[in-house]
Amino acid sequence: WKDSLKMVRDFPLWGTGLGTFRYIFPNYRSKIDFLVVNGVPRQATWNFAHNDYLQLLVECGMLGLCLALWALVATLRFLLSNLNRNLNGLGATLGYSCLAGVLALVFHSFVDFNLHIPANALIFCVLLCLAINLANLAKNKANTTAEIAESAEAKNNPSNPG
Predict the structure, then answer these.
(1) How far apart are CA 104 and CA 88, in angstroms?
(2) Contacts 24+ apart (CB under 8 A), 41-46
(3) What is the Cα 64 distance to its own chain's centre?
(4) Alpha-carbon gap, residue 147 to 149, rounded angstroms
(5) Residue 30: which of 10, 50, 5, 52 has the closest Cα?
(6) Contact at 8 Å (CB) between 115 and 105?
(7) Which of 41, 40, 56, 42 is nearest to 4 (CA)?
(8) Strands (E), the chain
(9) Which residues of 68-105 are buried (b: 16+ CB within 10 A; e: fewer)?
(10) How would you write the pLDDT of the chain (162 residues) with one tens digit per residue?
(11) I need a surface site. Which of 51, 68, 100, 135 has the fewest CB within 10 A?
């Protein structure tokens, strides 16, 4: 991670560009590691930073990392504020279960390159989409219930025209 931070120092705002980590990193590597494969030593290559956020910072700079973190926080706030609204027990349980799976991948991305593995990225997207869909359903249901209540109250308490 220390070597990756050297890259951030040289490309702080915009980063090195998406997908460039494996090409730029060898220039910043402080030591050369070797692996033994079938009894033959080979130079180790590093294609990922083993931290999705650090790799995003290297490749997209501070602007890209801040934008991604803003989107993550905004989405999590939306989910947490809407999942509990007017969903039956099963809907809320399903929504929070999807959210738990998303959060597990989010936290695990601090120590691995989770979202660079297609199966993990697909699971992340599916769980996130399901959670957002359930939160939207709860939000719409809550708004519809509020509109019905306001309409019923207006019918029961007609205002005097003048």
Answers:
(1) 24
(2) 46/22
(3) 13
(4) 5
(5) 5
(6) yes
(7) 56
(8) 34-37, 40-43
(9) eeeeeeebbeebeebbebbbeeebbebbbebbebbeeb
(10) 677 888 989 998 999 999 999 898 888 887 777 777 778 777 777 788 889 999 999 999 999 999 999 999 999 999 998 887 766 778 888 889 999 999 999 999 999 988 999 999 999 999 999 999 999 888 877 666 666 666 666 666 766 554
(11) 100
Give the tokens for residue 100.
């738990």
The tokens of 29 are what?
């590597």
Residue 42 pairs with which residues in a beta bridge?
35
Retrieve residue 71's tokens.
Answer: 């989107």
Classify 81 as helix, strand or coil: helix
Quote the tokens at residue 31: 């030591």
Closest CA to 105 of 83, 123, 87, 91: 123
Q: Which amino acid is at 134?
A: L
pTM more than 0.90: no
Q: Per-residue b/e over 119-132, b at no fewer than 16 CB within 10 Å?
A: ebeebbeebbebbb
CA 29 to CA 115: how far, in whole Å? 23
